[in-house]
Amino acid sequence: MMRIGQGYDVHRLVEGRRLVLGGVEIPYEKGLLGHSDADVLTHAVMDALLGALSLGDIGSHFPDTDPQYKGADSIALLKQVGEMVGKLGYQVGNIDCTVAAQAPKLKPYIEKMRENLSAALETAPSKISVKATTEEGLGITGNGEGMTATAICLLILKD
What end-to-end distance do the CA atoms of the chain give, in Å? Predict the structure, then answer.
């Protein structure tokens, strides 16, 4: 049996915050605003995995009203989601992600993002795809106000 999940996240860019995507800290004059580290890519992956298993969203598991998640490392939270996947008898078939950001250029960091996501999920990097795109100056990502990420996953029932 296979299950498919889709995730989406968006965060505003602000000064005075670190920019973390896929567990990689990227040098930039702005970072993403959020209760945790606001790692928009990892959040989209978590939502895709949780959605595939009909377990709700990350807010229901790691609420932003809970002080224990203030500044939380999203890769550590992803590990917990990966454990949920395994306990329910599934494994990652593959995950495909896209980050939309006008700047900075993300290409130099994509392989490390793939490595971080795959390590957190205890799967091969070859099962994780991360792409980056701009939105040609359109919308909140195009004008530099924020970043979005989408993810789709395929989970496969373990033998």
Answer: 10
